Amino acid sequence: FGKHNDSFKKEFLETHNQYRKQHQAPELRYSDELCSAAQKWADHLLSIRSLAHSDTENGENVFYSSSSVKKTPKGHFTQVVWKSSTELGVGLATDGNTVFVVGQYKPSGNITNAGYYEKNVLPKI
After folding, report:
1. Cα distance between residue 61 and residue 54, in whole Å
2. Is-contact 104 89, C-beta < 8 A?
3. N or C, which terminus of the chain has less Cβ within 10 Å?
């Protein structure tokens, strides 16, 4: 996937940061460690042809698309704009017909303890 993967990674990060800016969250930066873990999980999902979360302690969004099966994209927007998350990794695996995309975030977001949501998911400006 080579050069196309680099442009995908760039767009993935830029899109995240556009949404984060709208929600008063600082920009994410890429983490090689998270990219490696996300790629490993995306490759695994493609090999088993099933959408699932890994057992990572990081935040995680997964997406699946196929030319033969129409499914609704899965994910958690609040993790994308979670203010205290600072690092992002992405993995993409495809066989030409099926695509799995995994985004991992550090520190993890979507914490449901009292007050965390209000401090980390700010209103759109």
Report:
1. 10
2. yes
3. C
pLDDT value of residue 57: 96
Q: What is the structure's pLDDT at 70?
A: 57
Class of domain 2-120: alpha beta
pLDDT at 111: 86
Domain boundaries, the chain: 2-120
DSSP state of 121: S
- Nearest residue to 5 via CA among 87, 69, 77, 99: 99
Question: Which helix (H) or strand (E) element contains residue 118?
Answer: helix 116-120
Mean pLDDT along residues 26-38: 98
For range 105-113, the mean pLDDT:
92
